[in-house]
Design a protein that fits this description.
By secondary structure, this protein is of the alpha/beta class. The protein contains 8 helices and 6 strands, in the order H-H-E-H-H-E-H-E-H-E-H-E-E-H. About 40% of the residues lie in helices and about 15% in strands.
């Protein structure tokens, strides 16, 4: 794994969430940029760690950290990256292991996810012609959230310009188990069905299913099983800042560093 040099990325002090610190001039700049042409970036994935730690350091409830990270910072980054021509964005909101947390925190998270999809993601999807896709299991999420996910996915299914993946109740091992079962079912009904596991992953059929760049915040330097097949050749960036402290200037530093890496894809 390659790690971002700490003295360059993630060490500046940041006291406010990113949404409040992106200037108008930078937003205007985004309308003129294309990060695919400039950096070769089609798909960025984010593991938004550190929301609870950010809140704890400020003596705030954990749900304030989660709402700040998801409703303000992530929504802002999705908008900024969409403006800059990034086609696909993937964010890991809740893992298959996160069910071990206290029930009160899980309940807060599910409410925040519902607000995110209804009041943030749907608006962004309509504005940027983006298809919203849920990665992960749906059977264990609250019924109201499942219904909302189905609704957003259905209403945006015809959108072509961007893909917004949101991983909820997602785990890499779980995805592989579900994909294997889908393949077995397909082959049982049709012996000529595809034997390529990628055709049965949660990202199957997407134009750019494999992240070019994956960023994880809050100083964690592991993948935790996230998209194990899709990230095989992703460039990895581990950032010291908690996710509510991530902002667009930091994104510029990351993509500039990304552009300096030589991607060989095993060659």
């Amino acid at each position: 794994m390659q790690r971002v040099i700490q003295s360059v990325l993630g060490t500046r002090s940041a006291t406010e969430p990113a949404e409040t610190r992106v200037g108008d001039s930078m937003a205007d700049r985004g309308e003129r940029e294309d990060w695919y042409k400039q950096y070769g970036l089609r798909h960025m994935a984010i593991i938004p760690d550190g929301n609870r730690r950010w809140a704890n350091e400020r003596s705030l409830p954990a749900n304030v950290g989660h709402s700040t990270g998801l409703l303000k910072v992530l929504a802002s980054l999705v908008r900024e990256l969409s403006q800059r021509g990034v086609h696909t964005m993937t964010a890991w909101g809740f893992s298959t292991e996160n069910w071990k947390r206290q029930q009160s925190e899980i309940d807060h998270l599910m409410n925040i996810f519902a607000e995110f999809f209804e009041n943030r993601m749907m608006k962004l999807a309509l504005e940027y012609d983006a298809r919203v896709i849920h990665l992960g299991r749906k059977d264990r999420l609250p019924k109201s959230l499942i219904d909302l996910l189905h609704s957003v996915e259905s209403k945006t299914a015809h959108h072509k310009s961007h893909v917004y993946n949101v991983a909820l109740d997602y785990g890499g091992e779980d995805e592989l188990m579900r994909a294997t079962q889908r393949m077995a079912d397909a082959l049982m009904s049709n012996p000529d069905a595809s034997r390529n596991i990628r055709d049965y992953l949660d990202t199957a059929g997407q134009p750019y299913p494999n992240p070019d760049l994956l960023m994880r915040s809050s100083g964690e330097t592991r993948m935790s099983g996230f998209m194990p097949i899709q990230t095989a050749y992703s460039e990895l960036f581990f950032i010291d800042r908690h996710f509510p402290e991530v902002d667009l200037p930091l994104m510029y530093e990351i993509v500039e560093a990304f552009a300096q890496r030589k991607r060989r894809f095993g060659q």
